[in-house]
Amino acid sequence: MKTLTFYFSLLSPWVYMAGPRLHELAAETGTRIVYRPIDLLRVFRETGGAPLAGLHPSRRAYRGVERTRWARHLGMPINDQPRHHPVDESLAACSVLAAERAGLPVWPLAQAILAGVWVRDLDISDPETLVRIADEAGYPGRELVAGGDAPSCRGLFEDHTREALANGIFGVPSFVIDGELFFGQDRLDFVRRALV
């Protein structure tokens, strides 16, 4: 069985669009996914990247075109101008880590949070919003958000971010298979080739 390490952020539209296809691919190939939510804004700061708001207007405009183009291509709804982006994603990421620690499936919750940003226009930095998203996805929301706010989960999120930086991660989604990095939701065909 192959293992794929998945570095992701709950702020990224590209992670939102990649998630379902990655998990279909993992199911088809019998691949085990190791989840690594990371602090994307810190990764940008430390690797010379820029958040969406920091891009030149021409780059920002084209990113919007690409988001809409890919969302249409994949048949996924998207709100191209979310009001609550970017926000501090740490509690949301730590709530996902709390779900993993509780033995619950990671990705349905992560995908619901991503849809909260990119479809439902929700503020994922707000604890009550996170409780509601988790509850609606069938998770014990209040328990996970409380667990996510614990120092141990916060520390794990920090550890994942440091690991990502040490492993050359500069953006998301990033996939590592046998030490080889694949960056971007549009690289999933190459990911497939590495898994079969």
TrEMBL record:
Keyword Acetylation (UniProt): no
Pfam families: DSBA
Stretch forming the signal peptide: none
InterPro entries for the chain: DSBA-like_thioredoxin_dom (IPR001853), GST_Kappa/NadH (IPR051924), HCCAis_GSTk (IPR014440), NahD-like (IPR044087), Thioredoxin-like_sf (IPR036249)
EC number: 5.99.1.4
SUPFAM superfamilies, A to Z: Thioredoxin-like (SSF52833)
Keywords linked to the UniProt accession: Isomerase
UniProt superkingdom: Bacteria
The protein's name: 2-hydroxychromene-2-carboxylate isomerase
DSBA-like thioredoxin domain ranges (all copies): 3-195
Reactions it catalyzes: 2-hydroxychromene-2-carboxylate = (3E)-4-(2-hydroxyphenyl)-2-oxobut-3-enoate
GO biological process terms held by the UniProt record: glutathione metabolic process; naphthalene catabolic process
Family membership noted in the UniProt record: Belongs to the GST superfamily. NadH family.
GO molecular function, one term: 2-hydroxychromene-2-carboxylate isomerase activity
Organism: Pigmentiphaga kullae
Catalytic residue positions: S12 (nucleophile)
